[in-house]
Design goal:
about 350 residues, Rossmann fold, 2 domains
């Protein structure tokens, strides 16, 4: 077993090629509130642990005055939803925030349970949904609100739905979150919020932005500055191994590594890429588009994912056991790279 200290002592070169320690030591159970907390909870939010999801949860707490938070990720959403369904008592409200699904069937039993147990269940999101899934979720008794993925973040949806859109501090915070989540990159504070959500405890993030809004306090900024030294080194490593590949009339930048994908994608864009691909050691793939390529969600959908026209993600179905992952790490994502290139070719050829 690798300890936290030993993990931190790995060189940047090795850290860049391997997934984080959490990949090998799952922490989903420790992130979930206790049985007692869930049983006694009045308001529960299952939220993506990024800045958009956690800001949405902060809005929920501001409205209700309390919150039991269940931080999740797309890959762990089913686990967390089923955990909540197994342990809840009779809450007043349950919110699902910044998380989408392709098909209701795998989580239908859990959905039925939480709808019966709670006075209301609200699902706020801004990703691309298929029509059949929207109908199925709405038919289950959930109040589903999905914002335009080109225009708003989930925090925008929550702000309006919960009536805080006239509050200046919350509106400013949501605008900054949107700047990062839609990859507009006009407000430098958006990177601060994104990094803080990634590195901090989820409840700490909610407490801080609830008090300070988008202008993070000096102590937080000092900690971000220190953490960004390693972040930048990982970005540099991923950028250094990036390549540009011509597919049809487009130049596609592709790289591999554990890194902050937005900054790496921006570097590839500046190098001439119409779209940027970051293959992660954990198996996931981040896709970022530009004004000249706005079909990232179509590429991701071919590989079992989804997202927005200029920001999407997926995890190609090429990992079946740890030997596949070992091959992935030692070849810098060769199998996934092949699948991604094929998906780009399919999408680009379909428009010819």
């Amino acid at each position: 077993m690798v300890t936290s200290l030993e993990w931190e002592r790995l060189s940047i070169a090795r850290k860049s090629l391997l997934p984080g320690r959490g990949f090998f030591i799952r922490d989903t159970e420790s992130d979930t509130p206790s049985d007692e907390e869930l049983t006694e909870a009045t308001v529960i939010a299952i939220a993506d642990r990024d800045a958009d999801g956690l800001t949405s949860a902060a809005i929920v707490r501001a409205v209700h005055g309390e919150l039991t938070l269940v931080p999740a990720e797309p890959r762990s959403f089913q686990y967390h939803l089923e955990t909540v369904a197994e342990r809840i008592g009779d809450p007043d409200a349950i919110y699902i925030l910044d998380l989408s699904i392709e098909d209701l069937e795998p989580v239908s039993e859990a959905i039925t349970t939480i709808v019966k147990a709670s006075n209301k269940v609200c699902w706020y999101d801004h990703h691309e949904w298929n029509h059949e899934t929207v109908e199925a979720v709405e038919s289950s008794g959930i109040d589903l609100e999905i914002g335009d993925s080109d225009e708003v973040s989930t925090a925008d949806v929550a702000l309006t739905a919960l009536g805080l859109d006239e509050d200046e501090q919350w509106s400013d915070l949501v605008e900054v979150v949107r700047d990062h989540d839609l990859w507009l990159r006009k407000d430098p504070r958006s990177d601060d919020l994104a990094d803080y959500a990634h590195w901090s405890d989820s409840l700490e993030y909610i407490e801080t932005v609830s008090e300070h809004g988008a202008d993070l306090p000096d102590a937080v900024m000092a900690d971000l500055t220190e953490r960004r030294k390693e972040k930048q080194a990982l970005i540099d490593a991923a950028v250094a191994r990036a390549e540009l590949r011509s597919i049809g009339e487009f130049s596609i930048g592709i790289t591999y590594g554990r890194c902050s994908q937005n900054e790496v994608a921006e570097a590839m864009r500046q190098a001439g890429a119409d779209a940027a691909v970051v293959i992660k050691p954990s198996g996931g793939v981040s896709l970022r588009g530009t004004k000249t390529f706005t079909r990232c969600h179509e590429v991701a959908e071919l590989l079992g994912g989804g997202g927005h026209p200029k920001a999407a993600g997926c995890k190609p179905d090429v990992y079946h056991d740890m030997l596949d992952y070992a091959h992935h790490w030692t070849t810098q994502g060769a199998t996934a790279r092949h699948a991604i290139i094929q998906a780009f070719e399919t999408v680009i050829e379909s428009s010819d």
